[in-house]
Design goal:
The protein has 4 helices and 13 strands. The chain is mainly beta. It has 2 domains: about 100 residues, no CATH class; about 140 residues, no CATH class. The strands form 2 sheets. It has a 7-stranded antiparallel beta sheet with strand order 1-4-3-2-5-6-7, with no helix packed on it.
Amino acid sequence: MQEQQAVAAEPKRKKQIKWWYPAKKLRASDGGYGKWVSTYYRKFLKPTISLRISPASYFDNRMMIHLDLLWVSWYIHLPIYSTIDECEYPEFGWYYHSNSLVLCWNMKKKFIHMPWTYEWVRTSKLRADGTWYTERKGHVKEYRKTHPDASITEIWDYEKEQEGKLWEETHHVAYITKYGEIQNDIEATIKIEEREWRQKWLKWTKWGNKVSRDIAVEFNNEVGSERGSWKGGVMGCGYQIKKGEKPLQTLRRMMKESNFDR
């Protein structure tokens, strides 16, 4: 009892701020560091802007300033040396990526999604009777309100019951691998799914939404050049249906256009 009281009476220790300086050069013996200033042109990437300061970079203990301006990136190293010599390193600053402003503080990141970011709204599956089963965000939470003790299996059974009998077709298809092998023993079962995304600030309306109708494909045998190996072949995938196209036409186009080799 006295020991417990003694432990409880100990004052809480303040968190110490980790500081990486000063330190010395780490590359003097193996030929020195790389460039002090590197410029890269992001020709095939989306334009972005960023400003980040790091006490080190990838296995380089020099302080680094990372600046992005549209399609150009600069990595500026300073002759200030830290104790960090690892692949991962702290960052302080911000960058813009995929419609999100990302704030960096040490090893943590906070994503602030812009109002025009697209978010998933629904996934609809075609039933055999021509109707659609629609899954929306929060439908599992609604079920848990009335069934708080439901197991994962019970939730899965509930979803399958709501789906009902889905529309599906099975067709014989063939695939030619990159080695010229003809895989002619494949049965593909296809179903139809439709997904919708809306902008974060316009979720209440369909204006500006994105809708994709696809076939969901399951193969009865492995497909691709790695069939039978420890890597294994492809057993299923999805493919977008073009306007005016029937599901079987999409399947045949997929078998011509897709690469199932590794």
